[in-house]
Specification:
- It is built from 37 helices and 38 strands.
- It is α/β, with parallel strands linked by helices.
- The strands form seven sheets. Strands 14-13-10-11-12-15-16 form a seven-stranded antiparallel sheet, sandwiched between helices.
- The radius of gyration is 28 Å and the shape is globular.
């Protein structure tokens, strides 16, 4: 059946900000869907609150709204755009839940909008735990012993009947296992169920028998309206049941299933997708298999494109989201072509002749005090993927793609040395699932533990352990033979098992150049194979490559001028989707300019690793060895390092030393901006001020320098991203407590000490330069005072409190810095203004994380222009020579994962901890801020109770804030100190007990009882007191709006006043863009 012609306009809801459990996989799937539907001639209307994505580029959809994802806002957009259909399955859990609310509330019916891809009944059947359970029993599939509970009483009744621990808790309609976990005793069970009920938007939790130690599998399945079903990819978890699949190492295709078991699982998958009623599109179905008996159980299914769909798409080359979108508008699988072969129909199940490994990336170091045990609630912030011809090769490549200092499974580097921990530590490392457990398996093997013993401690399948034993055996052989006895057979086996030249050199105790020479002598060369979806049965026309050894290479020759774009690797806090956005824009711009673009990256979640973003895609680890090999074999003309965050920048100097043509700002200039002594001289030459500062190479030197500078002091390591190891210290004792952490954040590098400018206003400036002309893209004023990392701060464009004279001073300083550093491309400068004086904090001559945000606000694709400039073009020829200020306001707000890391300190600091961001756009600052809070959730309340507790320094401001809340009709609650002060100012206040006093009811009781709507709490020191952190934790769990800075509180008051007095309106990015185009025309820049 051809596409539907009765549909003209289709609405797609995005997944909102990047959060744990719902990351940039959904930017990838949403972007694919927009592209697929536009190809078919439909008008696509997209709604998402995330400005950092390719999906929200004005070119991706016909109409793009960056607005809060709430039913009220969506109704306004539906009323304005009048879509014929809503495709609910591509925006993750957020998009699905919101689509369901719109359907259940009658909004879709009111405006005549049809749900396509999955109907309301199918979504409910797949997501509602009780309905899913009934559906599985109906079709005769085995499910765990379980019950759906809606309150703690029901949960207690079930556990008393079941009587066995451990028990797993799974809240309904949540993402990444939010609120779930494994309870080993009655106390944990009651606590987890209570938490799970509050995390579930429908107050529903599934409690079920725990299948700890069982093997876990996922099937990515598609179905069309003809009832044709195909398995796109089978995925096996390396870790057994008990670890969330997003936190487990996963392998595709499934490795340990017999053919009979696979066919049973395939049949069961088709039975599930049919019974749930997903008419068209993709679904992810999870199974558990008892390794002792073979009993197969269905765990759950997602009636939508899932987090694993991106992995499956990249693993097979089959674009699940694109095909799902086309199936939703009437096509069948046999009518659609496979993009990779362009011969086979999409109804051909992909077959792969290689192994894919995904390894999650964690950032527990940013959440000190939280439990790093991996459970059924997801905690990873990103992932790396690798492809190899064998499991061994794929596994080692994936480990070195993590960028945590690990080179693979042994061979030096982090966790790769020959010295082992004690047997007791090894056993502890095996029993408890953590991010490091895989490395303890190697230690165990080196220490003499058998595979059977390791299996007993870990429940990891013996097949995987045998493979890892094979890697360790090769390492031992290399160590015994050394360089002099290293023969061709061993070297070939080592390369085919994924060992890099660096690893082999380290094990053999020699230089890397000797291993390279030996490989050359033996003719053991790196080759690149194509990902072709059909195990080489049909010719692949899309150049999507992975490296391997021992077979024939498949690189397609080309005479075009090639530019390599080095990606950012796995997502992490501090280096996320914003940098991938810049890499994608570089590829688009350079392809338009006639270059052949070559993307190298290891991140399966992103648009940069889509097979048609660049002319050539290399799915490879971003190490010097891997990047150089691709550059040389492809005979590239140049490489871009300033778009992928710190990852490519760390390689820049060595790449240049090895003959790579780094285009744009030189590595020397990038290093000069990082080197404190060189940079100081540049600022002196330009007559620019810096806070008093010094550089220390040891803790002792730091203590001495601190005495000279005077407190408060900002400590920061050099050459790190995301403020890792940054602290504000107010006295020597505080400094002594944290100095070791600051040095450990960048081993071997100095720590920088700056006089901290308390209560200063911070300003971020993004500029573009071609070496002659420098243009400021945007200035972002922080809402919070200095001391909050720019990645975590709420920001406003254009600046809202700074006068014209200061802004002109900022402009001139930016131009001077661009000239002096010989910037060609993008540059980010951070300034602080204190008592009318301008201070320079730092300069980064590279893309910053605010580039996507500013580009969307001003309607100018800065990363695209920078790419063209780096390739030699001039800004005057590209039509961008004048700074342009928007006539509207945009607020950037951050979202945080504290709820996943209970026990860590909940506060804004110089160390970045946010995972994502949202944008609030409006003509007034107050409403833009209110929208940003609504998008970040929870939104600002317009009535109710407010708890105010501020440090002594903030008491006067606290009184002004309390007065405003009182005038808006809020009832004020405070503990003794603040309450007495507010009363002395004539402000009505109700005194509550401090938590430490032990008397009840206290503010935590009020939060739990739904009696507290907003909390204003500024921390009393470098770390919040125990009381403060407990209040903040309960506010997070209870979804209560929480403000932790004085300036944030003032912004909240303005936002609440706006919500109470003005109607909320919506406007598309294209409408805002038209305003900017007219303005630029008036300036003569278009």
């Amino acid at each position: 059946m051809p596409k539907r012609t009765d549909l003209k306009t289709i609405l797609i809801i995005g997944s909102g900000p990047i959060v744990i459990g719902q990351a940039c996989e959904f930017d990838y799937s949403g972007t694919q869907a927009c592209k697929a539907l536009k190809e078919e001639g439909y008008k696509v209307v997209l709604v998402n609150s995330n400005p950092a994505t390719i999906m929200t580029d004005p070119e991706s959809a016909d109409v793009t709204y960056i607005e809060p994802l709430t039913p009220d806002v969506l109704e306004k957009i539906i009323a304005k755009e009048r879509p014929d259909a809503l495709l609910p399955t591509l925006g993750g859990q957020t998009g699905l839940n919101l689509s369901l609310k719109l359907s259940q509330s009658g909004i879709l019916k009111k405006y005549g909008v049809e749900l396509i891809g999955a109907k309301e009944e199918a979504i409910e059947k797949g997501e509602d735990r009780e309905k899913f359970r009934e559906a599985m029993l109906k079709i005769g599939l085995d499910i765990p012993q379980s019950a759906v509970v809606h309150d703690i009483k029901e949960a207690i009744e079930w556990i008393e009947n079941w009587g066995k621990f451990p028990v797993i808790i799974r809240p309904s309609y949540t993402l990444g296992g939010t609120g779930g976990g494994i309870a080993y005793n009655r106390e944990e069970y009651e606590s987890m169920v209570t938490f799970g009920l509050s995390a579930s938007p429908v107050t529903e939790v599934l409690v079920e028998e725990c299948l700890l130690g069982w093997k876990e599998f996922e099937m990515e399945v598609m179905r069309d309206h003809k009832d044709q079903c195909v398995v796109i990819c089978s995925i096996e978890n390396f870790d057994p049941m008990g670890v969330h699949t997003g936190d487990s190492i996963t392998i595709a295709p499934a490795m340990t299933l017999t053919d009979r078991e696979y066919q049973l699982m395939r049949d069961a998958s088709f039975a599930v997708i049919r019974e749930i009623g997903v008419e068209t599109g993709g679904s992810n179905i999870q199974f558990a298999v008892d390794p002792k008996t073979g009993r197969m159980i269905v765990i759950e299914m997602n009636p939508r494109v899932s987090r694993s769909s991106a992995l499956a798409s990249k693993a097979t080359g089959f674009p699940i989201a694109k095909i799902a979108a086309k199936l939703a508008v009437g096509y069948s699988l046999d009518e659609l072509r496979n993009d990779i072969t362009r011969e086979t129909p999409a109804s051909f199940e992909p077959t792969i002749d290689y192994v894919v490994t995904k390894v999650p990336r964690f950032t527990f170091e940013k959440f000190v005090g939280s439990d790093n045990t991996l459970t059924s609630s997801m905690k990873s912030v990103g992932e790396a993927m690798a492809i190899g011809r064998t499991f061994k090769e794929s596994f080692q490549k994936a480990l070195r793609s993590l960028e945590i200092g690990c080179r693979g499974f042994g061979g030096g580097g982090k966790f790769g040395g020959s010295e082992c921990p004690s047997l007791e530590k090894i056993r502890q490392g095996l029993v408890r699932p953590t991010a490091e457990r895989v490395f303890y398996i190697r230690y165990a093997m080196l220490a003499g533990l058998s595979d059977a013993e390791i299996h007993e401690y870990t429940s990891i399948d013996p097949w995987f352990l045998r493979q890892l034993r094979g890697i360790v055996d090769i390492e031992k052989e290399l160590s015994e033979k050394g360089l002099l006895n290293l023969d061709e057979d061993l070297l070939r086996r080592a390369k085919e098992a994924g060992f890099t030249d660096l690893q082999i050199a380290d094990i053999c105790g020699t230089k890397i150049r000797n291993i390279k020479q030996l490989r050359k002598d033996f003719g053991i060369n790196t080759v690149y194979r194509l990902v072709d979806t059909c195990a080489a049965e049909f010719k692949a026309v899309t150049p999507y490559y992975y490296s391997t050894y021992g077979v024939e290479g498949e690189i397609m020759p080309s005479a075009k001028k090639k530019i390599m774009i080095i990606g950012g690797g796995p997502n992490r806090i501090g280096q996320g989707i914003e940098f991938d956005y810049c890499c994608v824009h570089a590829s688009f711009a350079l392809r338009e300019a006639g270059y052949e673009t070559l993307m190298i990256n290891s991140n399966p979640e992103t648009v940069s690793t889509d097979y048609d973003t660049s002319d050539r895609l290399y799915f490879e680890p971003l190490t010097l060895e891997d990047v150089l090999e691709v550059y040389k074999q492809e005979n590239c003309w140049g490489a871009i390092v300033q778009f992928g965050g710190q990852t490519p920048l760390n390689l820049a100097s060595e790449l240049k030393a090895n003959g790579v043509n780094i285009i744009g700002t030189s590595p020397e200039s990038i290093d000069a901006a990082e080197d404190r002594q060189i940079f100081k001289k540049i600022l002196e030459k330009l007559h620019l001020k810096q806070p008093v500062n010094a550089t220390a190479t040891t803790p002792e030197e730091a203590y001495e320098l601190a005495g000279q500078i005077g407190f408060p002091i900002l400590l920061r390591p050099s050459f790190v991203l995301g403020g890792r190891g940054m602290f504000i210290v107010y006295e020597m004792d505080e400094m002594k407590r944290v100095i070791r952490e600051a040095f450990d954040a960048a081993p071997g590098k100095p720590v920088l000490l700056d006089k901290f400018l308390e209560d200063a206003i911070e300003l971020d400036v993004d500029a573009i330069s071609d070496g002659e002309t420098t243009v400021i893209g945007g200035m972002l004023e922080h809402i919070e005072y200095a001391g909050v990392h720019s990645g975590d701060a709420a920001m406003v464009i254009p600046p809202h409190t700074l006068n014209a004279q200061i802004l002109e001073e900022v402009r001139q300083a930016t131009y001077a810095l661009a000239r002096e550093l010989k910037v060609v491309g993008l540059m980010n400068v951070q300034y602080a203004i204190k008592s009318g004086e301008l201070f320079l904090i730092e300069v980064n001559p590279r893309a910053s994380r605010t580039i996507p945000f500013i580009s969307k606000v001003i309607g100018v694709p800065l990363a695209k222009l920078a790419s063209r400039v780096m390739a030699g073009e001039k800004l005057k020829d590209l039509g961008f020579t004048k700074e342009v200020l928007p006539d509207y306001i945009a607020v950037k707000e951050s979202v945080f994962p504290f709820v996943r890391f209970l026990g860590s300190q909940i506060m804004l600091t110089p160390e970045m901890r946010s995972t994502g961001e949202v944008m609030g756009l409006d003509t007034s600052l107050a409403m833009a801020f209110a929208k940003s809070q609504m998008a970040a959730q929870p939104g600002l309340p317009t009535s109710g109770n407010v708890f105010i507790s501020v440090k002594d320094h903030d008491k006067e401001d606290g009184a002004t804030i309390a007065k405003s809340f009182h005038e808006m009709g809020f009832k004020i609650f405070s503990t003794a100190g603040t309450a007495e002060f507010l009363k002395s100012k004539g402000i009505p206040v109700t005194k509550t007990f401090k938590l430490s006093e032990g008397a009840r009811p206290n503010v935590v009781d009020m939060i739990k009882n739904g009696q507290m709507q907003i909390i204003i709490n500024t921390p009393s020191g470098m770390n919040p007191r125990l009381d403060e952190n407990k209040i903040r934790q309960e506010a997070l769990l209870g979804r209560v709006c929480m403000i932790t800075t004085i300036m944030g509180a003032y912004a909240a008051i303005a936002g609440i006043k706006a919500l109470k007095s003005e109607p909320l309106t919506v406007k598309s990015l294209q409408e805002y863009g038209e305003i900017m185009r007219e303005k630029r025309k008036a300036l003569g820049d278009i």
